[in-house]
């Protein structure tokens, strides 16, 4: 487990977590509790949003509008990442786009920087052959999976009276901080899903507070086996996820907790495995570009890191942005969760 950081910022953040846990504890003791785990950008937040859509009341227009700034920031961050990648790869923009590139290089990655002029620049640059070429190499730098989607949505995003769609909300990336809780009812049973994000260094501090959770869902960004971490491009995301799962699965606090693996981003994985072998991440993989073989390998690889081989670990290949898929999967695991009511 990671050690607690010593900086004032980390201490303040840990204190906030303690306060949140204390306030949530009475409710934690009276509901079926699901802990949502996984490395960064594995789709945890998207699963949380889906629970609100599927089992809650969805998002009101007011709530939808609260995502607009994040969408602006996603667009700017992705555009700047692509512009930087073009330079890094030694590619050249079309002459008519050079002035636009210069503006982007000076642009701050904040929602306040977004304007109709910047939006038009984005649409023009997205068509530039250099950007298209850099995009095909997106695994070599940090680019959100939803980049192409949002570039295609720019005309709607800059239109008067724009209200983010459900798809927009599911695809926008917002870094999780603190504790996020989603409560919902299924077949007259109260569920609570808890996501503690962005707190890797403090995991040892809070993890014992969830020792009585009914189940833990661990999300894996399945398509990210050839990508580096946001924090360190040289560190492979899939290896990071595997190591984190080993920590969680073998943690004493979760000895009696049902483990459910969500191999997320399956839609992207299906496409990537056609051209990029898992061998780029795992030297012992030798099944080529076969999707089913790759699924079997990943399932076995993750289950193998659990010291208790008799422990049942359930797995599902999911696409968190697909509401029907998540609804089906959650319905499938519902019986697992309900069977553990006696442990609460």
TrEMBL record:
Top-level taxon in the UniProt lineage: Eukaryota
GO biological process: adenylate cyclase-modulating G protein-coupled receptor signaling pathway
One Pfam family in the UniProt entry: G-alpha
Listed SMART domains: G_alpha
Keywords carried by this UniProt record: GTP-binding, Magnesium, Metal-binding, Nucleotide-binding, Transducer
Binding site for Mg(2+): 45, 176
CC annotations in GO: cytoplasm; heterotrimeric G-protein complex
GO MF annotation: an example: GTP binding
InterPro entries linked: Gprotein_alpha_su, GproteinA_insert, P-loop_NTPase
UniProt-annotated binding residues for GTP: 170-176, 195-199, 264-267, 320
Gene3D superfamilies referenced in this protein's UniProt entry, alphabetically: GI Alpha 1, domain 2-like, P-loop containing nucleotide triphosphate hydrolases
Designated name of the protein: G protein alpha i subunit
């Amino acid at each position: 487990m990671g050690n607690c950081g010593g900086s004032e910022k980390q201490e303040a953040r840990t204190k906030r977590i303690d306060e949140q846990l204390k306030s949530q504890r009475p409710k934690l003791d009276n509901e079926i509790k699901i802990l949502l785990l996984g490395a960064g950008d594995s789709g945890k937040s998207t699963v949380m949003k889906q629970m609100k859509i599927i089992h809650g009341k969805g998002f009101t227009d007011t709530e939808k509008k609260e995502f607009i700034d994040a969408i602006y920031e996603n667009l700017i961050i992705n555009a700047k990442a692509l512009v930087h990648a073009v330079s890094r790869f030694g590619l050249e923009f079309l002459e008519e786009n050079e002035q636009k590139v210069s503006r982007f290089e000076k642009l701050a990655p904040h929602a306040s920087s977004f304007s109709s002029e910047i939006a038009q620049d984005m649409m023009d640059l997205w068509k530039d052959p250099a950007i298209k070429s850099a995009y095909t190499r997106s695994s070599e730098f940090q680019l959100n999976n939803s980049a192409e989607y949002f570039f295609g949505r720019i005309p709607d995003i800059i239109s008067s009276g724009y209200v983010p769609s459900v798809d927009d909300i599911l695809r926008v990336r917002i870094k999780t901080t603190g504790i996020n809780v989603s409560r919902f009812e299924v077949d007259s049973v109260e569920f609570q899903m808890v996501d503690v994000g962005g707190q890797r260094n403090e995991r040892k501090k809070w993890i014992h507070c969830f020792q009585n959770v009914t189940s833990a869902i661990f999300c894996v960004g399945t398509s990210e086996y050839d990508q580096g971490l946001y924090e360190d491009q040289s560190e492979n995301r899939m290896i990071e996820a595997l190591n984190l799962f080993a920590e969680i699965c073998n943690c004493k606090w979760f000895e009696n907790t049902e483990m459910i693996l969500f191999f997320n981003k399956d839609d992207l994985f299906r496409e990537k495995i056609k051209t990029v072998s898992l061998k780029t991440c795992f030297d012992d993989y030798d099944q080529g570009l076969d999707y089913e073989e790759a699924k079997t390998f990943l399932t076995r690889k993750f289950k193998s890191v659990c010291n208790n081989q008799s422990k049942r670990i359930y797995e599902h290949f999911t696409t968190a942005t697909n509401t029907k898929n998540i609804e089906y999967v959650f319905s499938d695991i519902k019986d697992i969760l309900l069977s553990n009511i006696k442990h609460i």
